[in-house]
Write a structure and sequence with these properties.
heterodimer; A: mainly beta; 7-stranded mixed beta sheet; 4-stranded antiparallel beta sheet; 11 strands; B: mainly beta
Chain lengths: 112, 114
Amino acid sequence: DVVLTQTPPTLSATIGQSVSISCRSSQSLLHSNGNTYLHWLLQRPGQSPQLLIYLVSRLESGVPNRFSGSGSGTDFTLKISGVEAEDLGVYYCVQGTHAPYTFGAGTKLELK
Amino acid sequence: EVQLVESGGGLVQPGRSLKLSCLASGFTFSNYGMNWIRQAPGKGLEWVASISSSSSYIYYADTVKGRFTISRDNAKNTLYLQMTSLRSEDTALYYCARKYFDYWGQGVMVTVSS
């Protein structure tokens, strides 16, 4: 099974600070159809997860453009350019290339 | 508006069975694959199972394979998760989500305890 390793597990940031979260896969997430099914989710306290970024770098509709995703193969990054208070919560990467699909362990973003 | 509404959760004894439902609305359900994901109290997300739009492709996590069955009824716009031989470690909030995780339900709690 694919293991997704997210770092750091916890991130402390001030409002306006830019931060990055890494997601490394134990094997390439490039599908035979040419797509890379690596997505990023945010789960705010007490809420269901919401999709931020899909297919590595595509911004989900309605998501602020301070969120961006990059990477390929086995190394992926979520960047927040200027943290806002509403960004606090737990961020997860998830892969849908290889079944069984898997989530990263999460990165908790806190206010410093 | 896309909506996913889970139901069927509750308290169940170890070894017993439970069937979850997820009623979809606001989109053409028969065009989309679907997932079940769970979250144990205070823990992260765990993918459980997925099913393609026509039920041709079905996948399970190793932790539930042989005990859980995912299915769907496109005429009723409903996704199901039949859970058997339940264990305490299956205690979690169970979410249904669309294929690319773009829409999620609010979740339904399953507690396995004697």
